[in-house]
Amino acid sequence: MPSTPLFRRIDVAPAYQKVADAIEREIINGRIKPGEPIGTEQQLVAQFGVNRSTVREGIRVLEEGGLIRRDSSRRLQACLPRYNKLATRLSRALILHEVTFRELFETSMTLEVASVEGAVERATEENIAELAGNLERSAAVVGNPAELAECDVEFHVLMAKASQNRVLQLAREPAAQLFFPTTEMIVGGVPEGGARLVEAHGHILDAIRRRDKEAGVLWTRRHLQDWRRGFEKIASLDRSVEHTYMEHAYAARQ
Amino acid sequence: MPSTPLFRRIDVAPAYQKVADAIEREIINGRIKPGEPIGTEQQLVAQFGVNRSTVREGIRVLEEGGLIRRDSSRRLQACLPRYNKLATRLSRALILHEVTFRELFETSMTLEVASVEGAVERATEENIAELAGNLERSAAVVGNPAELAECDVEFHVLMAKASQNRVLQLAREPAAQLFFPTTEMIVGGVPEGGARLVEAHGHILDAIRRRDKEAGVLWTRRHLQDWRRGFEKIASLDRSVEHTYMEHAYAARQ
DNA sequence: TCTTATCTGTTTGTCCGACAAAGCTAGATT
DNA sequence: AATCTAGCTTTGTCGGACAAACAGATAAGA
Question: In which band, very low, low, confident or very high, does the pLDDT at A1 lie, cut at 50, 70 and 90?
């Protein structure tokens, strides 16, 4: 055998993977911008010189990864991966790893506090208006646990948005997706729970308006501690998320 | 039109999607455990009553989502989604959204501090031994920016692991993947940067050993502030990650 | 003239059948 | 008993096919 290899390592990746990689590269490095069309399957067949089945498998990979989507007429186009779509995959992973509510709570506490700090510092008038609108809707449905829980989720999403930090927005999403669905159970099970939730949101919004970081953090912590106390009345923090959550949110989605 | 609709909404999801959903459900709710075989494509064809092409498209979706993989003999089996595989896709999303290093830095500061707090509270002897091993290796390669940067990444992964909080481990990963590759540039560009890095790691490990949360947080903050100062010497924090990162880590991967 | 209905290619989703390469299995061989 | 070989299975890929959904153009009606 020669000391210097005559041949390079042959690329053994299956064709559909190469198709996916090739399209991904074009999107990542910006040659195809979000919203721009990728072309029809037929065109891709012609360009890559592979069978349509192979192209389609490659397309599925990218579609699942959120890099491309089909528009109203099912034509392919590049797109910006949606945070919450990716977050859904992560949530699923967390469930399968059987994480506990304690882990979820601890991490959410960290991220929500960071979120409110950012919001106090950098919330725009528009952010504040959105939060105010949410608060109004929350107050109107305070007696309806399901709708109130939905408002709660949105409030925290808006708060993260107000922080103007997209990395934070993304980082908090997977935990939030698993954490907040239980709010409905808690608000429904604890008398005055709804009122306390809306009150806390009110104080948080007020703190953001006044740019009072200390107050914002304080009320966010209280808000989450409230959740925790409520949760501990109906389940153990050390129980895996799987059992508690599956029976509610995931089952309902099916 | 009758007041109560006669017919239900027809399910229009394409067949490959239904195949993917059906398999996903079996895995999520635990009827198929990680490591267990899914069956051959032929069997799935028989069970679902669809064509093999359709089954294969469904399989690609799940494979990309990390729910199933092919073992050494390419047979299908369920698996636990790997954090860092999912994190890679999130990192990609962050790049496409053109987040800035400021956002990355701010979020990483939050998550690494939470990480060290958890580690101080709950690190096991094994965790500490791993961190100590890493520190030793770091000290040995202090003059080699590339290898030192790799050690730095590992140190922070181990710290998150030591926090015993899997949600936190997952949440920090996407930001870390984008954040730490720059370490090489910084350590290489700033004299004494490598020594300072190893020194900080040493203090952090020491704090974890002594269960001294304050010291742990203090040195973690210093460590990251060091990174920031180093970074600002070579680039702007408000520049999008895309440009700076692409030319280094991503290009190298190709 | 503007709107509506119809027609005509395209494109997608699905199916069928086929084949080479790689892996596995089990019987044959040393 | 260990090894080898031949045959079966499975995957990755290919070619072609067709119905349904769709876009665009054209014709009919207000």
Answer: very low
Whether residue B138 is found in the same domain as residue B33: no
CA distances to A152, A187, B14, B240 from B236, in Å: 36, 46, 47, 9
Which residue in B has a C-alpha nearest to residue A246's C-alpha?
B29
Nucleotide nearest to B51 (CA to C1'): C15
Classified as helix, coil or strand, A182 is helix
**Domain membership flag for residue B6:** no
Helix (H, G, I), strand (E, B) or coil at B20: helix
Q: Do B106 and A27 touch (CB under 8 A)?
A: no
Is residue B208 assigned to a domain? yes
| Both structure tokens of A40 | 């029809």
Nearest-by-Cβ selection for B165 from A27, A96, A103: A103
- CB neighbourhood size of B40 (10 A): 12
CATH at residue A50: 1.10.10.10
**Chain B residues within an 8 Å CB radius of A110:** 110-111, 114, 168
H or E element that contains A78: strand A76-78
Rounded Cα distance, A152 and A136, in Å: 12
Query: What residue numbers bound the domain in which B246 lies?
Result: 84-253
Tell me which chain B residues have a C-beta less than 8 angstroms from the C-beta of A118. 106
Give the model's pLDDT for residue A29: 84
Say if residue B212 is in the same domain as residue B88: yes
pLDDT tens, position by position, A29-73: 889 999 899 999 999 999 999 999 999 999 999 999 999 999 887
pLDDT tens, A65-77? 999 999 887 889 9
> Residues for chain A: how many in total?
254
What ipTM goes with this model?
0.86
Q: Which among A100, A77, A97 has a CA at the least distance from the CA of A89?
A: A97
**Minimum-distance CB partner of B53 among A25, A53, A165:** A53
Q: Kindly state whether residues A141 and A51 are assigned to the same domain.
A: no
Q: Which candidate from B57, B171, B254 shows the least CB-CB separation from A111?
A: B171
Whether residues A174 and B167 touch (CB distance < 8 A) is answered with yes
